[in-house]
Design a protein that fits this description.
- Helix 1 packs antiparallel against helix 6 (about 170-200).
- The protein has helices spanning about 10-55, 60-95, 95-100, 105-115, 120-160, 170-200, 200-210.
- The chain has one domain (about 10-210).
- It contains seven helices and no strands.
- The chain is mainly alpha-helical.
Length: about 210
């Protein structure tokens, strides 16, 4: 059932809209925290690069390009997170407008709206409980994995900057490991945002996707 003919005076619609608003608010909070982390990384890389360039030995080519790559990459990720913040914050301010374009494929949505009750029907509660049974553990797991991947990536890149192995194969392995963990960190970042949203605001998600 499309959500275009919304009656926001309907207590059922009001309850669904509140969850939909919370769904986007959670994303704003999580993406803002991630944005703060990325901004911290950019500042640290910039300070380290400036300190290396001012040192007696100067910054090595490896230090220079690695730190510059992280600064530029961090800025791009920060811009992406900033856009997510802006887009979702507008929905937080006006959830009815954003919800108007959402299609609810669950029959439970139609029945709930028709009932006009603010209480969650048993049919919808079953969907919510089923989603939370795996969504919450997944949100915790991917958050722990993100922290682990970021820590591993930081350790690898610090080693890459400060130590060059005699073996080309060892250097290539270290570089490839760093790229892998950086890519995994970005993927886990997206998974953290999506799973945390659904864990804290499962009603609209369950009605839309089951």
């Amino acid at each position: 059932m499309p959500s275009k003919s919304l009656d926001i005076s309907n207590p059922a619609v009001e309850a669904i809209l509140a969850d939909y608003q919370r769904y986007h608010l959670v994303l704003v909070i999580v993406s803002s925290l991630l944005l703060l982390g990325v901004a911290t990384l950019i500042v640290l890389c910039w300070r380290r690069l400036r300190a290396a360039r001012r040192s007696a030995a100067g910054a090595s080519r490896r230090q220079n390009w690695t730190l510059l790559a992280f600064i530029v990459g961090g800025i791009l990720v920060a811009l992406f997170l900033g856009l997510i913040d802006l887009a979702n914050f507008s929905t937080v301010l006006d959830p009815a407008h954003g919800f108007a374009g959402v299609k609810m494929h669950s029959e439970g949505y139609s029945n709930w709206v028709a009932s006009g009750s603010a209480s969650i029907p048993a049919e919808v509660q079953r969907l919510v409980d089923a989603r939370l049974s795996w969504q919450r553990p997944k949100a915790i797991i991917v958050t722990v994995l993100l922290i682990t991947a970021v820590a591993a990536s930081a350790w690898i890149w610090r080693k890459w900057i400060t130590r060059a192995y005699a073996s080309r194969l060892a250097n290539a392995g270290l570089f490839a490991s760093g790229l892998t963990f950086a890519a995994v960190s970005l993927l886990l970042m997206l998974m953290v945002m999506g799973n945390t949203q659904a864990a804290f605001a499962p009603i609209a998600m369950s009605l839309a996707f089951g």
